[in-house]
Amino acid sequence: MKEKLTKSEISWILYDVGNSAFTMLVATTIPIFFQSLAANSGITEAETSGIWASVTAVSVLILAILSPLLGAIADYKGMKKPIFSCSLCISILALLVLSFTNHWLIFLVVFVIARLSYSACNVFYDSMITDVTTDERMDMISSHGFAWGYIGSCIPFVAGILLIFTRPFGLSTGQATQLSFLIAAVWWVCMTIPLLKNVKQTYYLERCEHTVSHVFKRLGATFKKLKNDKRILFFVIAYFCYIDGVYTIISLSTTYGGEVGIDSTAMILALLVTQIVAFPCAILSGRLAEKFGSLKLIKFFILCYIVICLFAYQLDQAWEFWLLAIAVGMCQGGIQSLSRAYYGKLIPKEEASEYFGFFDIFGKFADFFGPVIIAACAFVFGTSTYGLLALALLFLTGFILLSKSEKA
After folding, report:
1. Domains by residue range for the chain, with CATH
2. Are 70 and 359 in contact (CB under 8 A)?
3. Cβ–Cβ under 8 Å, residues 203 and 356
4. CA 95 to chain centre
5. Which one, of 304, 5, 305, lies nearest residue 142 by Cα?
6. Average of pLDDT values for 353-362?
7. Contact of 362 with 236, CB cutoff 8 Å
8. Is 404's pLDDT higher than 60?
9. What confidence score (pLDDT) does residue 190 get?
10. Angle at which helices 264-292 and 230-259 pack, to 10 degrees?
């Protein structure tokens, strides 16, 4: 990128650095800590995998229903940042509660609240990309967000891991783990301050007298627009299919690794490597998109994920988990950032939050469907490995639909 990043672009990117600390916890220490709480209560590993996947599915299903409504409200002048701030406060408070509770059921309920509010923040945050940059810079700015998010999340994560491994001041492993949640919460807040100060809602709709009824009319109109625009329609359905696998792999990687016998320490370190590898690869994907186009790169990443799913199906060695972590790191930043940016260029800017709300529906229903597949396999077959084959089929379907979007 020849031009320097603006203050609003940097502030937007820094939020990704902050909230990625929570994403890292969801993929690593939170499910591992929950596994230990569940094990202490006599729950088996297969049952724990099923419960965790089921709760993940329910939480994303709830937000999938709420996202378009919240997004439509946020599009009105002066509404986006207050709703974002409210969701952020709920997320941080929930994470603080997770830092102190030791009952597995309470932990599970509060985690759902934390995940719901975190996901709500992302709807508004993603839509802010239209406020902070231009279409020409969108691929690169989105890629920078994911890239710096990956590397930035390693800072509180490494601090937490050091606490867990060294257990200073007489801390138990559980106490050190929960202290790492607290560190992530503080990091998240600090990285969000620049966005709250410097990002303004550039595109918006003027408020009207009957806001509630107008919101629902807009939702109906937007749905018709999505239905009639084949390019957007095929893209969001394709996105539903392939992002399903991406999110499922991120959310349930440690649970799956534990089920097939991978040591917890090896899993955490391998996922740390994923974040480090993802940093340069996400930035590179933004530069390559400028040369080859976003859709071609997204299709390439989808094919890579099909191979990843097939490889993970037979995984039973620690070195294989490490190899898988590196492969995922090379792909996940690119496919997510380019999808977000490409969609941002397709939609009307003044209705970005509403459109990203619909975008989030497909993402969240995908995030619901993937864990359901894994949960069903865990309960029916006693193992979740067969779910990986289903994820490979979803990636393939996404590839086909993306090709249709390209030709529409």
Report:
1. 7-199+210-407 (1.20.1250.20)
2. no
3. no
4. 17
5. 5
6. 76
7. yes
8. yes
9. 97
10. 160
